Amino acid sequence: MKRPRFGAWLAFAVGVAYFAIPLIGTVEFSLRIRRGTYSLDAYGNVLSDPAFWNTFGFSASAAVATIVAGTLLVVPTAYWIRLRLPGLRPYVEFITLMPLIIPAIVLVFGYLRLYNSSSWLPMTGAPWSTDVLMVAGYVVLALPYLYRAVDTGMRSIDVRSLTEAAESLGAARSTILFRVIFPNVRTAVLSGAFLTFAIVIGEFTLASLLDRPAFGPYLQLVGANRAYEPSALAFIAFAVTWACMGLIQLFARDPAARSVKV
Amino acid sequence: MSLAWLGVVPFFSFAALFLLLPTAYLVVGAFQDNDGHFTLANLAGLAEPGIVSAYAISLEVSAASAILGSAFGFLLAWAVVLGGLPAWLRPMLLTFSGVASNFAGLPLAFAFIATLGRTGLVTTILQSVFGFRLYGTGFNILSFSGLTLTYLYFQIPLMVLILTPALDGLKTEWREAATILGASPFGYWRHVVMPILWPSLLGTTLLLFANSFGAIATAYGLTGSTLNLVTILLYAQIRGDVLHNPHLGYALALGMVVITGVSNALYIALRTRHERWIR
How far apart are CA B277 and CA B135, in angstroms? Predict the structure, then answer.
């Protein structure tokens, strides 16, 4: 290999500076709450705020619900398309890419018009059904990543042979799906799941417009009213995102999942 | 024909209920007046100065952050793939890019306020060490340039993630063949690399464009509602019908879908073109 070029080092150094400085700035700012000295008080204030734990817990549950619902929707569909209905593949793929075209704010606008409390299906009429609507929206937002991860995972296993082998051993459809197919795409599902978690945990648009007590609207509230706590929250959010991506890397080391790109 | 189609009923019903019907409702509503009659008045209403300027600012911020993001993302990807930097920097950059491309929304806004806000770290260091008053130059984090600079934090990493595999796909044989045929390094880039990479470069730029065009949380966290982006206008419209015409709101949403739809369609077309080469 050639000697490193000056230009490459320069680009890399500028990149490091651009990406590191805001992180350093965030940490430094979050420590400034006491005049003249650094302290962790901003973190103390955040972590002792019950609203922080309530909203974080709410969004974490929403993320888990999104992952479970999304997986139960995507895995059987991807399996069935591969096994029995390959002709429908372009349509399914197009639908899973649509959320990249339709911004979240447009999606939730449609929900509010279609499912408001005086409509044919008044989903925003009660808190629990609004939660269902919000999770459905999150599943839609996660579809492009989840479907691609699962579909790529299925490409690396021979769905047809596995199914025939299981059938000839007398397994029922549900057994095949849950005991044969799911375990084989587990790593793909997991990397899709952590990405989904990272997206849902701080999501603002849907939660705010559906008026749910989620972490995103809480962040907005703190951001509008406090000086130093927002940087503490930003640092915590960065750590959560980092943890999710780290877990993806960890699972992607499994050779079966190496081809998964999300 | 068997009952095989039953297996995809859940997926298609879900898509119909939570993706297709809500979107269709807005699209149809954009062409209706309050009594449900067909009209083009809502689309004409988009010519209002407030709405035109909202679209203009959104387009400018998205274009600026997409072009700068892809230019710098390309440089970074080039540096780690072909620039001869130590090999261990590459997985580090890619892992960080995975994190940073998902670090958006309100926390990102907070990070940039803490760094470049009026009392942010960089602002105060520039002032106390170099005597340079950043805010004296007219710069403001709550503005077009501030927002663009902030969006680059997720745009650059996204470009790096998409472009690194494309740069990996440049085969050593191509460079060797070009060199044997007497091409200079510039000639190799001009006649071999760029014709292969441009669809992917341009396509990813369009993806970045759509990515920032639909974004709202970062802008909302940074500027509140001082910067009149189309997403922020739509947010206000959903909250309280600030345009005093629900159907104009549908038209506003339709305009957004058309813009992101066109740029994504071009992206997919260009990606298909690129994949012919990278086998």
Answer: 48
Q: Which domain holds residue A86?
A: 51-257
Burial of residue A64, with CB atoms counted within 10 A of its CB: 0-12 exposed, 13-18 middle, 19 or more buried: middle
What pLDDT, on a 0 to 100 scale, did the predictor assign at position B173? 86
Distances in whole angstroms, Cα of residue B114 to Cα of each of A228, A241, B31, B126: 8, 19, 44, 14
Direct distance between the N- and C-terminal alpha carbons of chain B, in angstroms, rounded to an integer: 37
What ipTM was reported for this prediction?
0.88
- A33 is a domain residue: no
Rg over alpha carbons for chain B, rounded to the nearest Å, is 23
10-residue averages of pLDDT along chain A (262 residues): 73 92 94 89 92 96 96 93 90 90 93 88 89 96 91 86 90 88 88 90 93 94 90 93 86 54 40
| Residue A223 one-letter amino acid | G
Helix, strand, or coil (residue B228): coil
Q: Is the dihedral of CA A116, A122, A123, A125 positive or negative?
A: positive
Q: Is B38 helix (H, G, I), strand (E, B) or coil?
A: strand
Domain that holds residue B146: 60-275
pLDDT at B183 over 90: no
What tokens were used for B191?
């006649």
Domain containing residue B267: CATH number? 1.10.3720.10
**B217: chain A residues, CB-CB within 8 Å:** 202-205, 216, 220
pLDDT(B27) > 90: yes
Helix (H) or strand (E) holding B168: helix B144-168
Give mean pLDDT, residues B176-183. 89
Contact A80 B8 (CB under 8 A): yes
Contact B114, A234 (CB under 8 A): yes
Q: pLDDT tens-digit profile of A199-212? A: 999 899 999 999 99
Q: How far is B42 from chain A (nearest CA, A)?
A: 17
- In angstroms, what separates the C-alpha of A237 from chain B's closest C-alpha? 7
Asked whether residue B34 is assigned to any structural domain, the reply reads no
Answer whether A1 touches B (CB < 8 Å). yes
User: Quick check: A137 and A129 in contact, CB under 8 A?
Assistant: no
Q: How far is A43 from chain B (nearest CA, A)?
A: 15
Distance of CA B101 to the CA centre of its chain: 11
pLDDT confidence of B225, banded at 50, 70, 90?
A: low
Give the mean model confidence (pLDDT) for residues B26-41. Answer: 89
